[in-house]
Amino acid sequence: xxxxxxxxxxxxxxxxxxxxxxxxxxxxxxxxxxxxxxxxxxxxxxxxxxxxxxxxxxxxxxxxxxxxxxxxxxxxxxxxxxxxxxxxxxxxxxxxxxxxxxxxxxxxxxxxx
Length: 113
Prior knowledge:
Layout: H1 4-24, E1 29-34, E2 39-44, E3 49-54, H2 64-94
Antiparallel strand pairs: 1-2, 2-3
C-alpha cells in the first residue's frame, strides 16, 4: 500500500540531496575549445565562466570578428559539458531515493538548470 508520509519523507531527502548537489556545482569544471584550441574556456557547474584563454595569434584587429565567434563557440561548448556533468551529479546524488516512475523527469528538480 502507498504510504504518503514515507513518500513525503523521501521528497524532503531528495530536496536536501539536490541542494547539496547544487552547492557542489561551483567546484565542477568543464572545458570547451574552438579554433583547434586557439580559444579555450572553462566554466563551473553553474555555467559561470572561470577562465578564458585566447591564443596571442588571434590578437589582431583584423581578426576581431573571428575571435568573438571563437570565444562564443568555446564558452558554449564548455557550458554544454557543464550541463551534462551537472545532470550526472544530480542523478548520482538522488539515485535510489525515489522509485523509478516512468515519465518522471527529475532533471529540472530544484531549478538546477
